[in-house]
Amino acid sequence: MTSHCFWSATSPLPSSPLSNTHTKVEEKWRGYFPLKRKPLHLRLSNAGRARAALNADSKAIEIPRRWYNLIADLPVKPPPPLHPKTFEPIKPEDLSPLFPDELIKQEASSERFIDIPDEVIDVYKLWRPTPLIRAKRLEKLLDTPARIYYKYEGVSPAGSHKPNTAVPQVWYNAKEGVKNVVTETGAGQWGCALAFACSLFDLGCEVWQVRASFDQKPYRRLMMQTWGAKVHPSPSTVTGAGRDILQMDPSSPGSLGIAISEAVEVAAMNLDTKYCLGSVLNHVLLHQTVIGEECIKQMEAFGETPDLIIGCTGGGSNFAGLSFPFIREKLHGRINPVIRAVEPAACPSLTKGMYAYDYGDTAGLTPLMKMHTLGHDFIPDPIHAGGLRYHGMAPLISHVYEQGFMEAIAIPQIECFQGAIKFARSEGLIPAPEPTHAIAATIREALKCRETGEAKVILTALCGHGHFDLPAYEKYLQGNMVDLSFSEEKIQGSLANIPQVAA
Ligand SMILES: Cc1ncc(COP(=O)(O)O)c(C=O)c1O
């Protein structure tokens, strides 16, 4: 399915100045005087190095002033989104019922960098820069020579990476005079982020929360309500899309695709209301690159270069946020990490989906996007990582995957929670169910390093805390968690409903 083009994600670039191989001598000396591998920009002065040593483990770096747009550096540009009726490439005006002009511009932009407005930076300062932490205690627990780093986004007010895009999305809407925004939410993390941002800029906020999470996670609903948002379980009786689903299945657990249909329907019907999306779209991935831009500087401060970058993928925004700036460095031949997405075995869009034009929502209201999809009417089983229950993958990530610049694996939820428990009992932080996928993959790799003796540098995204996901932990701790695995039949059924678009 995935065609790897002129160079594979796992083989070293001939031009890369940073080799991943260490001699035995290097390994021996590392124990005494950590041998600095060349930093990413390769231009650190002695004073810079001294400062780097001081800064390691701290938040002393600056918040980036620009978001990074990977499209500018891609040798092959991604295919355009299509109008759902005409199948022609969509025009900016097609999107204006849903989004403010500035976000539409960003969606289609091929500029390499986009300035972050001062007002947004001002809000980012509440929690950014976020810490990059070496997981020394986890390394010790696993008895691995690997060096594991995690970039922790759980320090934001909403507890995840989602406010990195919620704040600019709401700010651009407010600047263009929009009064209300509507959205979907899976785990409730995105809904919380949007409700928080709306409370700062005084916008109305209405959220459709996937039924399975609405029931499992009452505290996120209460957080959204505390920030002033109105929250509906999805499918709801408020919209035509919701009523249709309920008619077919009154006990539907919902899905992100259904919740998106409901929010888009409301935005399309109300002039003073726009729609915000928490993942998938180019402008969302763009805003999340503050994570990777900060992380590049922080890895430099540690004197480290990642050999492997791991992130979980639902719609792909935290993964893109961390990895895209590193992919830029990789494309320029400065580093050569393996970039690995981790998805749930119950909703494996990248590893088992079809690369095809499909709708972003269940009812077929959104533009058609070329992406890895399980079919827009695929309803994943109600795994605890509600934020990963999306039938598709960000078109930009799908494209990068097709081009061979990254790889993907799928992991079932019990292994993820086993990893999360190890992480919590060594590093202290309790991860949200979504990044437990990245942690499980990190542990797999660290254990491989124990076997091979390789001292790989593994960088992973801990994109949110799990303080409001404790019922999932309770299930695991009581031995009641089950692996809801993926059904070939179910996917064949939903793939049959993908619209037929000429290649
Ligand atoms: C903590 C957390 N991580 C990851 C995700 C998945 O989204 P994305 O792939 O866009 O990062 C979500 C989505 O709700 C989330 O809440």
UniProtKB/TrEMBL annotation:
Residues 1-21 are annotated as: Disordered. Keywords: Amino-acid biosynthesis, Aromatic amino acid biosynthesis, Lyase, Pyridoxal phosphate, Tryptophan biosynthesis. One of its GO terms (cellular component) is cytoplasm. Residues 1-10 have a biased composition (Polar residues). Gene3D superfamilies: 3.40.50.1100. It holds the Pfam family PALP. GO terms for molecular function: L-serine hydro-lyase (adding indole, L-tryptophan-forming) activity; pyridoxal phosphate binding; tryptophan synthase activity. Its EC number is 4.2.1.20. Transmembrane segments: none annotated. It comes from the Eukaryota. The keyword Lyase applies. Pathway: Amino-acid biosynthesis; L-tryptophan biosynthesis; L-tryptophan from chorismate: step 5/5. Coiled coil: none annotated. CDD domains: Trp-synth_B (cd06446). The beta subunit is responsible for the synthesis of L-tryptophan from indole and L-serine. Tetramer of two alpha and two beta chains. Belongs to the TrpB family. This is tryptophan synthase. It comes from Rhamnella rubrinervis.
